[in-house]
Q: What sequence folds into this?
C-alpha cells in the first residue's frame, strides 16, 4: 500500500507525463485528451491514480472533464498551461502547519462575509451543524467531522463560491491530519460548543468584526497547538 508521500509522487509523475503528451502531440486549447484507459496504459499507472491526477489538473482549471465526452485541454493557452503545470509539479506536500494557516486565513475572511451575507437558511444550516456537533460531544464521541461541517456551513454562508471551494478542497486533508495528531481532546471539544455559539450569534447579528473576533478565540488553541508540535 502506498503512503501519502508516495501517492503524491505518483500523481506528480502522471501530471508530468500528461504535460509531455500535450506538448508532444501539439494539443491546442479545447483539444481532447485520450481516454483514461489509453492514458493509464500509456503511462503504466492505475486508472484510479490517473483519474486523481486529472482531477488535480481540473481543480486548477487546466483541463475540463465533460461527462460522456471526455477530458479536454483548457482554453488558457499552452504557454500558461505549461507554466502552471511546472508550478504544480514543484508544490510540496502541505504540512499540518500549512493547512492550519490556510484554514485560519480563509475562515477569518469567510466568517466576516458570512455575517454580511448570511441568509435565514444559512443560519439554520449552521445551527443544525452545531446541534449535531454538540450531541456527539455530550455523548463523549469524536465530533471532528461535525466540527468541520459547521465550518463548511460558514464558508457556504460567505456567498463566495471560490472561498467555499477552497475550504471543501482542504477539509479532507484537515480531517486526516487532525486525526493523526490527535488535536481535539475532550476539554477542547466542550469549549468548542460555546465558541461555535458565539460565532453563530455574531453572524446572526450581522456583526462581521464580532464574528471575526469569535473565530479568532475559537482558533487560539489550534494555533498554539500547531506551533508547539
A:
Amino acid at each position: 500500500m502506498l503512503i501519502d508521500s508516495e501517492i503524491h509522487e505518483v500523481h506528480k509523475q502522471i501530471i508530468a507525463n500528461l504535460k509531455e503528451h500535450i506538448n508532444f502531440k501539439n494539443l491546442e486549447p479545447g483539444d481532447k485528451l485520450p481516454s483514461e484507459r489509453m492514458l493509464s496504459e500509456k503511462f503504466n499507472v492505475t486508472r484510479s491514480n490517473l483519474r486523481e491526477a486529472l482531477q488535480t489538473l481540473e481543480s486548477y482549471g487546466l483541463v475540463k472533464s465533460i461527462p460522456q465526452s471526455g477530458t479536454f485541454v483548457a482554453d488558457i493557452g499552452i504557454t500558461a498551461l505549461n507554466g502552471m503545470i511546472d508550478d504544480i509539479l514543484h508544490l510540496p506536500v502541505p504540512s499540518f502547519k500549512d493547512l492550519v494557516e490556510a484554514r485560519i486565513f480563509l475562515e477569518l475572511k469567510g466568517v466576516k462575509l458570512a455575517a454580511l451575507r448570511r441568509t435565514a437558511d444559512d443560519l439554520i444550516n449552521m445551527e443544525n451543524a452545531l446541534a449535531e456537533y454538540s450531541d456527539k460531544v455530550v455523548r463523549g464521541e469524536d465530533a471532528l467531522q461535525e466540527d468541520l461541517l459547521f465550518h463548511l456551513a460558514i464558508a457556504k454562508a460567505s456567498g463566495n463560491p471560490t472561498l467555499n471551494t477552497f475550504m471543501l478542497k482542504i477539509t479532507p486533508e484537515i480531517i486526516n491530519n487532525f486525526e493523526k495528531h490527535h488535536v481535539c481532546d475532550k476539554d477542547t471539544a466542550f469549549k468548542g460548543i460555546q465558541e461555535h455559539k458565539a460565532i453563530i450569534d455574531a453572524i446572526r447579528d450581522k456583526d462581521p468584526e464580532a464574528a471575526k473576533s469569535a473565530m479568532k478565540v475559537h482558533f487560539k488553541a489550534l494555533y498554539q497547538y500547531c506551533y508547539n508540535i
Summary: The beta strands are 63-66, 70-73.
